[in-house]
Amino acid sequence: GAVVSQHPSRVICKSGTSVKIECRSLDFQATTMFWYRQFPKQSLMLMATSNEGSKATYEQGVEKDKFLINHASLTLSTLTVTSAHPEDSSFYICSASPRTSMSGGELFFGEGSRLTVL
Amino acid sequence: DAKTTQPNSMESNEEEPVHLPCNHSTISGTDYIHWYRQLPSQGPEYVIHGLTSNVNNRMASLAIAEDRKSSTLILHRATLRDAAVYYCILSRPSLMNRDDKIIFGKGTRLHILP
Predict the structure, then answer these.
(1) How far apart are CA B63 and CA B22, in angstroms?
(2) Closest approach of A14 to chain B, Cα-based (Å)
(3) How far is it, in rounded angstroms, from Cα B39 to Cα A96?
(4) Do B100 and A97 touch (CB under 8 A)?
(5) Considering only alpha carbons, which residue of chain B is nearest residue A104?
(6) Residue A93 pairs with which residues in a beta bridge?
(7) Confidence of residue B28 (pLDDT cuts 50, 70, 90)
(8) Strand pairing partners for A109?
(9) Is the predicted pLDDT of residue A55 greater than 60, yes or no?
(10) Which A residues, 53 through 82, put their C-beta within 8 Å of a C-beta on chain B?
(11) Residue B2 clears pLDDT 70, i.e. is over it
(12) Which of A47, A111, B54, B77 is deepest in the core (most CB within 10 A)?
């Protein structure tokens, strides 16, 4: 089946630095990818919708200047956490779908990237 | 806001069937019902989805109420590996995909007792 891969799976950084997380669709093209954040014992929270060739759409309360999203190709979207602080420590998950019709097919998720900001 | 409601947690004995309920009273005619599950420290995994008719696959069955306002995920024979958080989600696909975002509710944490 279709696979979505994230890299890195774990990252530790110092406060004030920037961290980039990659999300790749390995065997399908995805014009749209989604980025989620998940804190311990909580559900996934949608951060933004990444659209290939155009600006990302951010959910209310998510700072677009802090969480930079780039979707430069049909198989790659990147999330950059700029000037990271300890409160940005979280599990970041991306998802994508090969859907191009009204079929309502499944959504595929990456393995997640755990960010720890010291 | 999530458009589904699920019990916070459920328990089941190993090798017994499990029925996970989900209410979605505000479902629209074009909404698909999706189920995903998430094991600890992993991304969610697709389980099953459907529109109106009941669905079966190798992992589970999905029973959809006639009025579509509720559904039940059925694990026919639970194993310890089925212990996870199960999310019931509504998805409204579009040709452009741009509005078809998946909003997660709190899900049901399923505990399997050996």
Answers:
(1) 10
(2) 22
(3) 19
(4) yes
(5) B93
(6) A36
(7) confident
(8) A95
(9) yes
(10) 57
(11) no
(12) A47
Q: Which residue shows structure tokens 């992992």?
A: B59
Read off the pLDDT of residues B64-101 as tens digits, 9 standing for 90 and up: 999 999 999 999 999 999 999 999 998 876 544 445 67
- CA-based torsion, B112, B54, B1, A109: positive or negative: positive
- The answer to whether the Cβ–Cβ distance between A93 and B49 falls below 8 Å is no
Q: Could you give the CA distance from residue A34 to residue A56 in angstroms, rounded to a whole number?
A: 9
Q: What angle do CA A25, A49, A2 make, to 5 degrees?
A: 20
Q: Phi and psi of A86, rounded to 5°?
A: -55, -30
Q: Chain A residues with CB inside 8 Å of B92's CB?
A: 104
User: Which tokens sit at A6?
Assistant: 């994230």
Ramachandran assignment for B107, one of left (phi > 0), alpha (psi -120 to 50 degrees), beta (any other): left
pLDDT digit string, tens, across residues A61-108: 999 999 999 988 889 999 999 999 999 999 999 998 775 544 456 788
Contacts of residue B85 in chain A, CB cutoff 8 Å?
43
